[in-house]
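C-alpha cells in:
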C-alpha cells in the first residue's frame, strides 16, 4: 500500500514538473498562460479578506489578486516604487 501511494505521488510530481501550463475544463490551455480556467457556468473565486487582513500580508507579490470584503471590491496589489 505504501509503495502504491509513493508511486502515485511520484507520477503526479513528474507530470506537474513537466507541464508548461495547466488547463481546468480545457484540453488546450492557452500557451501564454500558466493557468487557463474555462467555464460556461461558473466563475473564478479569488481569496476573500478584509482590508486589515490584506494589510498583514508581508511583501505582497506584484499583481496579487484578492477580493476585499471590507469594501466589496476586487483588488490587485502592487508595491509602491522605491523613491
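Residues out:
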Amino acid at each position: 500500500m505504501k509503495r502504491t501511494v509513493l508511486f502515485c505521488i511520484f507520477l503526479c510530481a513528474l507530470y506537474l514538473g513537466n507541464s508548461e501550463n495547466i488547463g481546468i475544463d480545457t484540453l488546450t490551455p492557452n500557451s501564454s498562460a500558466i493557468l487557463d480556467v474555462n467555464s460556461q457556468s461558473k466563475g473564478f473565486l479569488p481569496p476573500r479578506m478584509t482590508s486589515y487582513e490584506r494589510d498583514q500580508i508581508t511583501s505582497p507579490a506584484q499583481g496579487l489578486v484578492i477580493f476585499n470584503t471590507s469594501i466589496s471590491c476586487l483588488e490587485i496589489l502592487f508595491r509602491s516604487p522605491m523613491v
